[in-house]
Structures are given as C-alpha cells and as structure tokens.
Amino acid sequence: MSPVEPAPSRLYIVEDDDRTREELTRILSRNPEFEVMSFADAEGALLALQDAPPDMALLDLRLPKMDGLTLLDHLQERAPDVMAIIMTGYGDAATPRRARERGAVDFVEKPLDLPYLLVSLRQQAREARLRKSLRAGADLFSRLVELLPDGIVMEDDTGQILFANTLGRTLWEEGFREMGTRATHQGRVYLLDRYASGDRVLWHWMDLTQALEMERLAGYREMARLLAHEIRNPLTPMRLWLQELSAMDPLDPEYPHASKDAHRVLLQQVDRMSALVGRFKALGQDLPLSLVPVDAEAVVREVTEALAPLSYQSNVSVDWSPPGEAFMVVADDGALYQLLFNLVRNAVEATATRDGGRVTIRARREGRQAVMEVEDEGGGFPPEVAAAPFTPYLTTKEGGTGLGLLVCRELARRMGGELTIVNRPGKGVLAHVTLEVAKE
User: Fold this and answer.
1) Range of the domain at 186
2) Counting Cβ atoms within 10 Å, is residue 267 exposed (0-12), middle (13-18) or buried (19+)?
3) CATH code at 405?
4) Are 345 and 397 found together in one domain?
5) 142: pLDDT confidence band, cut at 50, 70 and 90?
C-alpha cells in the first residue's frame, strides 16, 4: 500500500509589487507542497480568510492601507497556527525583532534569496502540517472528552485551568474539590479523584450513578427473594392453625381454646408480615422526594420526643447535643424523620440489651456538609454483622429482618447524602449521616 501524499499547505502571498508577486506565485506554485493564493493588498487576503484560512503566509511589510504586521494579527485571529514570513526592502535593525514579537517565524529582506526562501518555506510547511495535525487531534480529543459522562479538569501548578469539559468546569466552579467525596449534580452522583504529574494536576469526577443504580437494582432483586422467603415463614403456622380448626368439630370442648390460640397466633403473624412489607415498601419506594431546606434540629427533637416512652421503659437516656450554630440541611422532612427515627430506635434497643445506658445524638457543620451522629452503648455488632452491616436479612434482633439499616442508607442517598456505620466492639455502634447544608 503506497503512502498517502500529505495535503499541500495553503500559502498566502501578499505583495503590492505586481512583478514580485507574479514571480513568487509562478515559482512557488510549481512546488506540490504549496497551494498558493496571491493578493495585491491586505483587503483581498482578509476576504479570502473567511472561506480559506492559510497554513502559511509570505507577507510584505509595507502594504497599502494596512502593513504586513497588522495583517498578520488579523490572520492569527482566524488561523492561530499560521506560519508567517515577513519580507521587506526597508527594514532596520529592530524590524526582525518586532516581526517575531508579533508572531512571525522568519524575516527576509529584499532582494529575496530564493534558495533560502524555499528552504524556509519548506521547513514552515512541515511544521504547519504538524501543527494542523496536532490541533485536529486535540479537537477530536476535546470532543471525545466532552462526550464523557465524567467531569474532567486539568490545571497547572498555579491553579490555572488548562483544559476542562463542561461538566468538569461546572463541578469545579461549584466547589466540589474535596478528595474522595461524592458530589450530587442534577440528580447524578460523582466521586472525585485527583492525579498529579509534574506541574499538571488532573481532577476527575467519576459518574457513579449507573453503578449505584445497578447496585440498587441488585439489592431490590435480593430483597424480593428474601421477602418471598420471609413471608413463607408466617404463612406456614397460619395455614396449619386454619387447617387444625377446619378439622375440629365446633362442638368439641377444646374448640374454643384452640380457636383462641389460633386467633392469637394469626394476629401475631399478620403483624409480622405487615412490619416486613412496610419496611420493604420503604426500601423500594421510588417516589421523588421533596428536597428543601429542613431544620435538622427540629426533626431530631421530634424523634426524641416520639421515642421517649421506649427510652424510659428501656432505662436508656437519649442525650441530644445541638450544633453550636443553626443551619438547615437539604432533605425531605418525612424521609429525614424516618431515617433518624430508625437510627435512634435501633440505638435505644441495642443499649437496652445491656441493662440501660446512654444514646448520644450530635450534629455539626463541616464546610458544605452537615454531619449528624447517633452513638449507642450496646456493645457493638458481632463480627459477621460488622463486616457487612447493610446486608439484607443479617440481624442480631429476635424476629428482625435486617432491612432497617438498608432502608436508612437508601433514604440518605436519595437525599444526596450518605450513611456510614462505625462498629466499636465492646462499646457500641456509631451511625454517621452526612447531608448537604442548604444555601443561606
């Protein structure tokens, strides 16, 4: 396969002397490396610039109405990679320096040295092709990065942005620059990472939304399997009791007693099924939340008041340490209440198993994040639960389903936050909730 011949470089010749322009056009047009376009003045070159910008330019310094350096400025606006050579018969010692400061790559004096000019033009043609290829590659790369679902920003060691796609610049300007944190933007979740090499730093916001959705879908499927398994358990005794009553003679002296026992068992199993279905419904609910500024302190006080009878009967004190400053969080009022209610109730029940103790609720502000913590003195999780506290059906409670913490984590994530669990063996469990602070 024969190599592809490189496309010729478009060369502007702008020279007001007719004889010089004609000779240069004739000589240079014979070279296949150049596609020559010649003009007698700057006006003609500027008209052609709109449809056919140059790769190279050979410009006379003195032109009617506009000098060659001013023309070069206009050419660079439309063709920033143009390789320009300035030629003149009236130069002084400072003219070459001024030409290079304005962007010219070479300066030649008249009468022209044709062999030198050809060597210079061929060299500039090679560099022009290289620049053109690099710019085309950079343009394709920019378009490719713009299509990415991730945010990208590259900066130098002074903090100046060298390159960014639209999403990356948006997240950068919104201040999401803390390593390892998750940012929520227009309903999508991003995880920030940072890479440094030399004097360049790359900021990368990875779109986790699809992965989280897949994880959520897998969780829902597992929940459906576990729900089906769990519902069979109460159905079995219910069926057995009903079959027992159906087989008995209503006149049998034992029938009233058996009927009373069946009634009690059936109610217990119905309650168990109702609780299970309620938790599963909360986990799988996909109705949109109303995320608005919510007074977190008011919600915490409502939760502690609602659980006061339970904490009193359990000999557990609930201590609430309000933040030193008032702030609102971005949340759904009902979802936040359910989240904190479940965490505090779990903490009270866990602490009650050790003959009472204390549950501590704290809140504070860390930059753009609000942090709320619920800490108990229940002795902590056993190793199998501590290794995966959000695993469905894994529980230490008698009759529990293991869905409570999973529901809490789902509610936190749907509000743009996160729930983490810290186990302290022999002491207790610390539930750590982060939400975005509402803008004042």
Assistant:
1) 148-207
2) exposed
3) 3.30.565.10
4) yes
5) confident
Which CATH number fits the domain that encloses residue 177?
3.40.1840.10
Task: Count CA atoms within 13 Å of residue 103 on its CB side.
Answer: 20
**For residues 115 and 120, what is the distance between their CA atoms, to the nearest angstrom?**
9
Helical segments of 209-364, H only: 209-247, 255-284, 296-306, 308-313, 333-352
Instruction: Tell me which H or E stretch contains 386.
Output: helix 383-386
Question: What pTM value is reported for the model?
Answer: 0.41
The DSSP result for 188-235, as a single string, is EEEEEEEEEETTEEEEEEEE-HHHHHHHHHHHHHHHHHHHHHHHHHHH
H or E stretch covering 331: strand 328-331
What average pLDDT does the structure give for the chain?
82
Residue 368 lies in a domain: yes
Tally of domains within the chain: 4
Asked if 167 and 87 sit in the same domain, the reply is: no
Q: What is the pLDDT of residues 333-386, one digit of tens each?
A: 888 887 898 899 888 888 888 777 899 999 888 888 889 999 998 888 888 777
Q: Nearest-5° angle of CA 49, CA 57, CA 105?
A: 130
Q: How far apart are CA 311 and CA 321, in angstroms?
A: 17
pLDDT number for residue 409: 87
Residue closest to 346 by CA, chosen among 388, 285, 299, 408: 408
DSSP 140-157: HHHHHHHHSSSEEEEEET
Q: Is residue 333 part of a domain?
A: yes
The span from the CA of 141 to the CA of 131, in Å, is 15
Query: First CA to last CA across the chain, in angstroms?
Result: 68
Does 1 have pLDDT greater than 60? no
